[in-house]
């Protein structure tokens, strides 16, 4: 059995679903690369890093929506739900981190840089 197949059925997943599923790790790898460029080379790459993070959400939302509304993709509902939950959790952590850092900057004698 080669490629991505539906769990417990052995039927191959549709090509568009495979493409969306394979695009997520590719986009995350690109986002990681841009974070490295921003840290070690060019600080303006943070905007590209943020944009790539937003773009990564599109295939995640599509995967989750397809798994919910297409009966043939029902076996993928849990996996896509977990990926969606992790993506939302990342956004929650970023929001909480910004608020904490902003509050910390006001209290510090020597302010930390707030991004």
Report on this model:
The protein is mostly helical and 115 residues long. The chain has one domain. 71% of the residues lie in helices and 0% in strands. It contains three helices and no strands. Helix 1 runs antiparallel to helix 2 (45-69) and helix 2 runs antiparallel to helix 3 (77-107).
How do you describe this structure in short?
The chain is mainly α. It contains three helices and no strands. The protein is elongated, with a radius of gyration of 19 Å.
Query: Which percent bin holds the helix content?
Result: over 70%
User: Strand percentage, roughly?
Assistant: under 5%
Tell me, rounded to a whole number, the average pLDDT.
Answer: 84
DSSP summary, beta strand count: 0
Order of helices and strands: HHH
SS content category:
mainly alpha
Distance between the termini: 48 Å
Q: Give the uncertain stretches in residue-range form.
A: 108-112
The major sheet is characterized as:
none
* Number of domain units: 1
Counted by DSSP, the helix tally is: 3
Task: State the shape.
Answer: elongated
Q: Rg to the nearest angstrom?
A: 19 Å
């Amino acid at each position: 059995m080669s490629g991505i197949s539906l769990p417990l059925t052995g039927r191959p997943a549709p090509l568009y679903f495979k493409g969306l599923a394979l695009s997520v790790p590719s986009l995350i790898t690109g986002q990681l690369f841009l974070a490295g460029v921003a840290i070690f080379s060019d600080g303006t790459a943070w905007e590209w890093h943020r944009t790539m993070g937003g773009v990564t959400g599109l295939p995640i939302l599509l995967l989750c929506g397809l798994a919910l509304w297409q009966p043939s993709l029902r076996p993928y509902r849990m996996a896509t739900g977990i990926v969606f939950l992790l993506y939302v959790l990342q956004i929650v952590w970023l929001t909480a981190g910004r608020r904490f850092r902003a509050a910390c900057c006001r209290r510090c004698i020597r302010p930390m840089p707030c991004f």
